[in-house]
Amino acid sequence: MPIVFSDIGKAASDLLAKDFGAPGAIKLEAKSTASNGVTFTVAGSKDSKTGAIAGDLKTKYADKSRGLTLTETWTTANVLSAEAELADALAKGVKVNIVGALVPHAGAKNAKVSLEYKHAAVATRAALDLFKGPLATADFAVHHDGILFGAETAHDLASGNITKYNLAAGFATPEYALAVHATNKLDTFAASYFHKISKDVQAAGRATWDRKSGANVTIEVATKYALDKDAFVKAKIDNSGRLGLGYTQVLRPGVKINLGGFFDTTRLAENVHKVGLSLTLEA
């Protein structure tokens, strides 16, 4: 299957970043689907430190026969957004996406049009952000026999400057994956690995170096262990002593709870740790 640029190294990134609760917050997400296929999602979170509550209401309709998906979102920050996606209608492997956003009280607005094409071992994407710049972005990725390569760039049309260019390469199999990224205009370099040790155990690691920071290299490792088909635990730690722990449990079909947090092992007696909880309900 063709992969996009952001998929290179994704297995390691997901293991290192996801399922560690909602550090410093309590989150609730409820999903329901009507008989005509319309999906409603209500999500909210409360910051444990400030007590601030934020949320959003999302409505999604998908017409699979036409490849059309419509999504509308309204947030507690009074941001209205709408998204239309058309997949495989113009041609096989072509996806068109249009996103618009409006902040009524501030009079701010934004619109973005993107095009994606996937075929065999090649995938490419291009997007135009109409109100920021305008800013044009593009990326591509190719793969052959597990070898992956991709590039990404962004161009500010108003100033004529190239604002971003990134490169990535890797090698992936069903059991393990390796990836190397050069980002931030080739100033930041990262090497990562993912290993599916068994059906119950996974491991990942990443080393990152920013040439502007001198000789310092950041290293982080993570592991995931499936307790059974409905529960798993995760742990990660980096070379600065920051420890992340997570526990995910499916209580019953459609009900999932995730507990976790990040702890500074160099300052255990201080109030610098963040714990959180998220609950997802789906019907």
UniProtKB/TrEMBL annotation:
Its main location: mitochondrion. Pfam families: Porin_3. InterPro entries: Porin_dom_sf (IPR023614), Porin_Euk (IPR001925), Porin_Euk/Tom40 (IPR027246). Belongs to the eukaryotic mitochondrial porin family. The keyword Transcription does not apply. It is found in: Mitochondrion outer membrane. It comes from Allomyces macrogynus (strain ATCC 38327). Signal peptide: none annotated. The keyword Cell membrane does not apply. This is Mitochondrial outer membrane protein porin. GO terms for cellular component: mitochondrial outer membrane; pore complex. Keywords: Ion transport, Membrane, Mitochondrion, Mitochondrion outer membrane, Porin, Transmembrane, Transmembrane beta strand, Transport. One of its GO terms (molecular function) is voltage-gated monoatomic anion channel activity. The lineage of its organism: Eukaryota, Fungi, Fungi incertae sedis, Blastocladiomycota, Blastocladiomycetes.
